[in-house]
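pinging the channel bc i need a second pair of eyes. not urgent but kinda urgent?? the chain im working w is below, pasted from the shared doc
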Amino acid sequence: MFRILTNKAYLGIISHKGEAYEGKFPALVDMATFEAVQKILKSRARPRKTKDSHNFPFCGLLTCQECGAAITAQYAHGHGGTYTYYRCTKRLGPCSQKYLQEKKLEEQIKQELQTVAISDDWYTQGLAQISQWEQELKSNNASFAQNLETKTQEADQKLNKLVDSYLDGTIEKETYILKKDELIKQKSDFNQKKSDFGRKGVTWIEPMRNFWKAAHHAKKLVSTSDFPEIKSFVAEHGTNRRLGGRKVSWLWTGAFKIVGDLAKNAAARAAAENNNSLQNSGSFVLSGIGGLNP
């Protein structure tokens, strides 16, 4: 009810992203009535009481790997301080899973983020490559579209000449019908290709660019303590998010799955060669970016 009484749409005004625009429809109430209602609402307003909430940023992100119940958190005192622990709620039955300290949970989550994170240098180079692909595709697509248009016009001209020849008695009716059917099929094929081309275009470019930006954002999250943003990122791009054996795990979705697999395979190869660390996981990401191009 409050939303209805404060909605400026009834004045013929549209609000979008904090900015007002004049609507193309008549107002349902006059300004004086609307303002009077606002004064009444303001005079009757009361501050809402809020409950003090615990700061458990990763609650709601994970489920128990053993029983499937939700993962909750609680404070515990010891060794001169207060610590946050995450554990299974055990609401679905007996469960043997133990507590995991928030700091260790954070470390594990960031380790997973690192597998899909790209460095600043690779981010810049990747965006440049995507822009180059975009320009090349636009050029090729423009040429392809022009070629289809030319062929369509040529088919129209042939149809017109065919009709004129038939009307002049230059060709027989049977020949006219056969040639006309052939040209109509050609035009239909050209129009279908133009329609398909219009729907497809370069639609994969923007999702690719958004993914690249998100992968770079993952790198920034690794070095921050913005837990709500980290949780949001993992929830958006990860599925089957579990906690079991005091270990966090999930499956990356979409392009992140490809990148995560590339990084893990590279890490396995490096470990096999007694290389204790990856210098830059972004290099493996960029080497596989072509595989993300549908």
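so Residues 55 and 84 are 9 Å apart (CA to CA). and DSSP finds nine helices and eight strands in the chain. — does that match what u expected or am i reading it wrong
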